[in-house]
Design brief:
Layout (H helix, E strand, L loop, with lengths): L11 E9 L5 H10 L12 E10 L2 E10 L19 E7 L11 H15 L5 E7 L3
Parallel strand pairs: 1-3, 1-4, 4-5
Antiparallel strand pairs: 2-3
Length: 136
């Protein structure tokens, strides 16, 4: 059974938000998954990115909406509550290049902060995935 992607017939819809520190690679992860492409140089994206992808699994067509939290001029600005609402999943992207002993950057505090943001603002059953980028 082949579904027609053009008129957006699908069996399931999942909305997924991407979170992580500024310049960690959120947009790169999204681009790689959606378009199977990668850019070496950093690209500043302003606003919130929205990408979609259709995936066929067990004769079902799944529509994924990926909400990329991008950092505008103020990367420390809090996210609006509506960014978290209605999402079935969240992916927290982080880099593993920092040592857990580095006083300048406590990666685990940042991950914990993102998880707390999700739990405080998203639906109670939003699933959370940690995505580690291993930067060389």
């Amino acid at each position: 059974m082949e579904k027609n992607v053009d008129n957006e017939n699908y069996d399931y819809l999942f909305r997924i938000m991407i979170l992580g520190d500024s310049k960690v690679g959120k947009t790169s992860v999204t681009r790689r998954f959606i378009k199977n492409s990668f850019k070496e140089e950093h690209e500043l994206v302003i606003g919130y990115g929205l990408e979609k992808k259709f995936v066929q699994k067990d004769n079902k067509l799944i529509k994924l909406l990926i909400f990329d939290k991008v950092n505008a001029s103020n990367p420390l600005a809090p996210l609006p509550t509506k960014y978290f609402l209605g999402k079935e999943g969240a992916i927290i992207v982080y880099e593993s290049k920092y040592s857990i002993f580095d006083d300048k950057y406590d990666i685990y505090d940042n991950i914990k902060e993102n998880i707390e943001l999700i739990k405080a603002n998203a639906d109670f059953d939003t699933k959370i995935i940690l995505f580690e980028l291993n930067v060389i």
